[in-house]
Every structure is written in C-alpha cells, then in structure tokens.
C-alpha cells in the first residue's frame, strides 16, 4: 500500500539508480525518493551492510537501515555476473535519469560504471559520485567513514569539554550532510538539463562536507591565528551562550547580544552584571567568560527547567531544555509540525523530510524495500506471462 500526495511531487518523473550503501548515498537517495523520484536501490546479494546494523531491528532490518531507505525499490545484482552486469547497464541506458554511487574508490571505474563510460552512451544522464576524500589529492584513493572525517576535518578538536578526550558528534552529520549536498547537486543539474538537454557530473565527498562544517572555525583561525578549542555546549566568540545545570535537568540559554544579556541578568536578579565593565559587551564577556559563567552557574541551580523557561520566555531570552529523543518526539511542537510521519508498511513512524512544498510536507510513499523485491516481482511476472 502506498501513500498518495495531495499535490504533485517535483521529481515524480525521475528515475534514480542508487549504487549506494551505508548512510551517505542512501540518505541522498531517500531525499530524492521523498521528493517523488523512483529510486531503484541496487544491492549485493547479501544486501546493504546497514540492513544488519543493530539491534534494534524492525520489520526485518535494522532501524538505521529503515530510516535511510524508505520509498525505494530493491534490486539485487551480483555485478561479477555478466548477466547481472548487462541488466544493470540496460536499466541505466533505458530508464535512468540519475546514477548515484558511493562505492569504494576506483570500483566504478573497474566495473565500467563510471560517469565517463555511462555518459558517453547517454549524455542526458546526471551522475553523482559521493566519495570519501574527493577525486584528487594524495588521499583520493582512500576509503572514509563519518568518524574518520570528523577527526580529520578538525570537528573533533572543537567538540567536547575543554581538556577532555576527543568526542564524535553523535548524529552522522558528515554522512548525512554529504547526502544533502549530493541531492542538491543532482537537483541542480536536473534543472539545467531542462534547458540544455545535457546531464552532467556531481562530485561530493565526506571530507569536503566535514571541512565545510568547520567554516566559522576556519575563518576565526585565519583571522586570529589562534586555534579554536573545545567549548562544551558553548560557542566560540559568543558569551553567554551555553547550557546550565538546573534543579532538574539542563537548559541552554542563548543571550547572544548586549540587550539579551541585560535581560538575562535582570531575570537572575543581578541587573548590575550588565553594568560591570568585564561584561559590558560581547568581546569583554568572551575575554572574561570564566568569571561570568562562575556567577551564572549557581543561579540556575535554584529552579527547574520549566520555571526558568517561563521566566526567560517572559523576558524574551532564548532558551531550550536539553531533551532526549523521547522528549523531542513527544513535544507538542514536533507534533504540530507533523514531522513524525506514518510510513505505509512500517511498524514505526519515521521523521519525514524537513521541508514543506507549497505548505505541504512530502509524504513517504512506502517503507524501506525488502531485499530483492524487484527481482521477486520480475520472477512472478515472468511466470505469469510465459506460455
């Protein structure tokens, strides 16, 4: 059973062949699928490794896999088998608008499934390489994974508490960010193709994505010559701008300018702090951050998250409790946005595409595919049509 969308989806007539595994390319493919594309996920006989990344498992595969592969179809092909290889090439030549791949470096060239080979036969094809370190340089041939890129790009050098061990950002921001860039590049070339008839090549890599997340830190270093460090829940260059322990939890308060700091000081019943030369403006507060935070921290222990939120909201000071996943999913704001969506065929709902088109969030059309479901359908069709 598929779920229908009230308004046409923008990629409804687009066919994407996903030679993807793990997180990055599957996430890109899922974005395109949620936007209406027919995404055919080509899997090895054992399936995408992410099918086995559990527990927890749900509906026959890991919850992680289910969250990255909805609204697709699965086609199992052993690309070492000449018949399967020919079947894939025929699928691309006859039907594909897009090929999206994150196979290990050099593999598509070895298989003659690279952009140059496929686009020489089909110039209208949009081809996307989603690599590790990019297509040039001394590390171009090395594989890469999200935690390696968080380390190599410098992300881990600024995450965690000062003096603490390296900490990885929990969500796979490098993999998923690369998937977002891939989807953006693909849609951009599809738009160009409408005018020119020509496809093109998109190159995205985990390292470039990770480096891009460091944009502000890189600019700060280039401007000052000082290496940015770890700030816990805080932010380099803005004070006060971090989490505080309260009577029953943790609360992030973002008093990012002089007026907000003045309001915060009044809520904490210390309006004189706003007149203290050490805290008079943001550069002064950054310079004297340790002294200021030593004053703020005991104040927040006096009341609960809810009490502080009520007071800070009334004063117009931005704040938010540090929620766990259950709290986020159950929050009335999440519910009001319809962000958690039922998915046809799935035992659990999923977080939907974080955008609306003409006021409407794209509806997931189906759950993640069973391994080789297209093969099974083809076999049934062959049996019923053969005399």
Topology:
Elements: E1 15-19, H1 24-34, E2 38-43, E3 57-58, E4 61-62, H2 63-66, E5 72-76, H3 82-95, E6 98-101, H4 107-110, H5 115-121, E7 126-131, H6 146-152, H7 173-196, E8 200-205, H8 206-213, H9 215-224, E9 241-245, E10 250-254, H10 258-267, H11 282-287, H12 289-300, H13 305-315, E11 319-321, H14 325-330, H15 332-337, E12 340-341, E13 350-351, H16 373-385
Parallel strand pairs: 1-2, 1-6, 2-5, 6-7, 7-8
Antiparallel strand pairs: 3-4, 9-10, 10-11, 12-13
Helix pairs in contact: 1-7, 7-8
Q: What's the N-to-C terminus distance?
A: 30 Å
Model regions low in confidence, pLDDT < 50 over at least 5 residues: none
Compute the number of strand runs: 13
| Radius of gyration over C-alpha positions, nearest whole angstrom | 25 Å
Percent helix among the residues? Answer: 25-40%
Taken from the alpha-carbon principal axes, the silhouette is: elongated
Largest sheet: 6 strands, parallel
SSE sequence, one letter per element: EHEEEHEHEHHEHHEHHEEHHHHEHHEEH
What structural class should be given to the helix and strand makeup? alpha/beta
Number of helices in the DSSP assignment: 16
Overall mean confidence score, pLDDT: 95
Beta-strand fraction estimate: 5-15%
The order of strands across the largest sheet is: 5-2-1-6-7-8
